[in-house]
From TrEMBL:
Domain IrrE N-terminal-like: 65-167
Designated name of the protein: IrrE N-terminal-like domain-containing protein
Record organism: Streptomyces canus
Source superkingdom: Bacteria
Pfam family, one: Peptidase_M78
Taxonomic path: Bacteria, Bacillati, Actinomycetota, Actinomycetes, Kitasatosporales
Length: 346
């Protein structure tokens, strides 16, 4: 399964991760919220390393990484200009540490075909939940969903990074959609979604109707017919969109299929004649028949079955390893370096 599909499960895992923090370090949540890196530097079971941002973060949504093979394990945080962004990254990488060292949290990863994607989604939800707690989400946002201006206000009235605000706002989208952070050229810096494939980090959205118009003004704007461009060159279905500037260098875009906060009524988009939505397919991996109800995988262009299988599943399985002790086939993240024994058996 991919990250956009963990609508309810990732927040539940995040709550369990927060409980683990409270058990391991009682009374530290407020300190983590106020200055994440300063608090994490005090923890003896991990170390924090500020390093130049890598050009490609792989599947990771932030400019950082988790090194489990060091002693103690290392939370690598990219040297971003924004202290808030560093804090979000540090908490995200702490999420990896918790899930890879806590038995109960780690066991939940095995419930998913794509355990790495679930782990990533939970890390985002965990970091955002600490930085923007429930009592900071306005009631009208909970009821009608977020607008772009709501996300900007969330950033300005909290200590959270823009990325954390995107994650928290996406949680309250009424239907399928995404909350996207872009730079002044229209390049995606971060995206959080609910029920749809978000634009990839680093992708150029400057020619889409919403972002193209937003780059020409400093006012909040909206478009009833916009879309997301994927790296494959394909487009999403038509979306409603609103964009607002969050300081001079960052643009927030909220995109949704229907039920948006800034319109009294938004009819669901009819799918085009060529769309595969609503058609039935048979999964080549598990043999299940399924109805196509979500956009296809951005990487391979194939729809996913109910178990999350697509054309990428076979490619991912080639990198999986079999633990020589328990004989379970696990993702590489469950092993230390090149070890043939998983962490649970070590």
């Amino acid at each position: 399964m991919t990250r956009h599909r963990f609508i309810e499960e990732a927040p539940r895992q995040a709550e369990a991760m927060i409980s683990a923090v409270e058990r391991l370090h009682p009374g530290t949540l407020e300190a983590l919220r106020a200055d994440p890196l300063a608090e994490l530097h005090r923890w003896t079971e991990i170390q924090v390393s500020l390093e130049a941002e890598a050009g490609d973060g792989g599947r990771c949504s932030v400019a950082g990484s988790y090194r489990s093979d060091s002693d103690p394990p290392t939370l690598v945080v990219g040297e971003a200009r924004s202290l808030r962004r560093r804090g979000f990254t540090g908490l995200h990488e702490l999420g990896h540490h918790l899930q890879q060292t806590d038995t109960a949290l780690g066991q939940r990863l095995f419930d998913w075909e794509d355990s790495e994607a679930f782990e990533e989604a939970a890390c985002d939800a965990f970091a955002a939940r600490i930085l923007v707690p429930d009592d900071q989400i306005p009631e009208d946002v909970r009821r009608r969903g977020p607008s772009a201006d709501d996300v900007v206000t969330m950033f300005r009235t909290s200590q959270a990074s823009r990325e954390a605000c995107c994650v928290r706002a996406a949680r309250y989208l009424a239907g399928g959609g995404a909350v996207v952070l872009l730079d002044t050229t229209g390049e995606v810096l971060f995206a959080a979604s609910r029920g749809m494939i978000p634009p990839a980090r680093g992708s150029d959205q400057s020619r889409t109707p919403l972002v193209s118009a937003a780059l020409r003004t400093r006012a909040t704007i909206q478009r009833d017919k916009t879309y997301v461009v994927y790296r494959s060159g394909g487009h999403s279905d038509l979306l409603y969109g609103q964009a607002a500037w969050c300081d001079e260098d960052y643009l927030i875009a909220v995109l949704a299929e229907d039920s948006v906060a800034w319109r009294a009524f938004t009819a669901p988009r009819p799918y085009t004649q060529s769309s595969r939505f609503g058609s039935w397919r048979e999964c080549e991996t598990c043999g299940d028949s399924f109805k196509v109800t979500e956009p296809a995988c951005e990487e391979c262009g194939e729809p996913r079955c109910g178990q999350g299988h697509c054309g990428c599943t076979t490619a991912r399985s080639r990198s999986d390893r079999t633990c020589e002790r328990c004989s379970m086939v696990l993702a590489p993240s469950r092993f230390e370096g090149t070890s043939t024994t998983c962490r649970d058996c070590s």
